[in-house]
Design goal:
Helices cover 38% and strands 15% of the residues. It is built from 10 helices and 8 strands. 46% of the residues are buried.
């Protein structure tokens, strides 16, 4: 159960990004205010539901790729959001029971539900850090309590960087996190993009709701996060197009989803 400190910090008078996204992917950890703005945005741009669902499927494919094809056994999931089905540790440990996963968020809603993330196979380990994307050094220092940062890590930053208003600052935060990880580590990013009038209108409506703003970006700026890394094929593409799996077929997977993603490897020996 949430402790008293978490209950005090949780504001249910305004929409909240983690709860809003939870509603869109079919979760139950949201409030009426989140559902109201969610339903409003559905009328403006129904495609945002497809963005949420297909982005979640991309997470699964990316984690399986890293664990199975690249042998990655450590994951650092920054801005994890509320737990739903197939969280990073569940996907990773399903194919690699010894995988270690560290979730990072400084959000009181996520903190209140952290107990749902703190599960692991006996062979592996899962941890949750109450830490801030804006302090990469602190994130890496704390993560080192669970992860061996001399070995490759899969850095997951999904649907999070849009909260950083300044693009150059967002790029700098990504660079600082990757600088603390060894060669052979991978960066996994997905974010909503300013690729249709509907998505731009949905973003404006969401930002006007009183929630913490989320900024959609051009595709070229999503690609810019991978500068200096070796992009894994097929590069930076719409989320349903990244190594599609027939098992993921469904709503949104064949359409022009306004979200792009990529996976990049840190070069070196």
């Amino acid at each position: 159960m949430p402790d008293g400190r978490s209950r005090v910090r949780i504001d249910t008078s305004k929409p909240h990004s983690a709860r809003f996204w939870n509603y869109f992917v079919g979760g139950k950890d949201n409030y009426e205010v989140d559902r109201e703005i969610g339903d409003q945005i559905k009328t403006i741009f129904p495609g945002l539901v497809d963005v949420a669902v297909t982005s979640r499927r991309f997470l699964g494919r990316a984690v399986r790729y890293l664990a199975v094809e690249q042998g990655v056994r450590q994951f650092l999931d920054v801005g994890t959001g509320l737990p739903t089905a197939d969280n990073t540790h569940e996907v990773a440990q399903r194919v690699a029971p010894d995988a270690r996963i560290v979730y990072v968020d400084n959000d009181p809603i996520v903190l209140a539900h952290a107990h749902a993330l703190l599960t692991s196979t006996p062979e592996g380990r899962t941890a949750y850090l109450d830490a801030d994307l804006y302090d990469p050094e602190a994130v890496l220092t704390a993560a080192a309590g669970t992860l061996d940062l001399s070995r490759p890590v899969g850095l997951m930053i999904l649907n999070t960087l849009g909260h950083v208003a300044d693009y150059e600052q967002a790029r700098a935060l990504v660079r600082q996190l990757m600088a603390g990880l060894p060669a052979g580590s991978h960066l996994v990013i997905s974010d909503s993009t300013a690729t249709s009038e509907g998505m731009i209108a949905a973003s404006e409506a969401y930002n006007a709701s009183g929630a913490v703003p989320y900024h959609v970006r051009p595709v070229a700026e999503i690609a810019g996060f991978f500068e200096g890394l070796e992009l894994v094929e097929p590069g930076v593409v719409r989320v349903p197009e990244w190594r599609p799996d027939p098992a993921d077929a469904g709503a949104g997977d064949a359409g022009a989803v306004d979200a792009y993603c990529g996976v990049g490897r840190k070069p070196g020996t």
